[in-house]
């Protein structure tokens, strides 16, 4: 029995890739077509069950807008896990995601678990191929998932797998 498990995790990625929408889907099981861009960062607490134990996730949802970039180390400091999000319809956001992973590996917690997420799979106009992201993930020893915050597809699994990876550390 391990009571009071408490994990800080952080979401990083370009503006409008859907970070806040993924957290909203996880915590409220809802979707909003026009969320405001996040300012700075905010924390959402979500309890999830891993096997026998209840884990408290402290999820830091950060702002992707460039003007907030200098703040992000405050949010990923001490994070045991990170979810790096891109939008499958936006190749620039994929490039940014790979940059985030390198930055985290360099400046984040030593053995933070990182998950790469391609969001908005409900949209038709995919420009980033899954195989491209999967290859990058394999090479960098990460897990890769695709999600839709709109339909909910794949969303819970991302948080669940990340919590599980952290619990195995
Ligand atoms: P910042 O806070 O600026 O960093 O952006 P963000 O990454 O938090 O993006 P946000 O969740 O605010 O979503 C941006 C827009 O994309 C919103 O209008 C959402 O409705 C939309 N969106 C988010 N996820 C999805 C998705 O899975 N599918 C579709 N079709 N739209 C999505
Ligand atoms: Mg946001």
Automatic annotation (TrEMBL):
UniProt keyword list: Nucleotide-binding
UniProt keyword annotation of Transmembrane present: no
Nucleotide-binding is among the record's keywords: yes
Superkingdom of this protein's organism: Eukaryota
Identification of the protein by name: Ras and ef-hand domain-containing protein
Organism, scientific name: Anaeramoeba flamelloides
Full protein: residues contained: 3 to 171 of 216
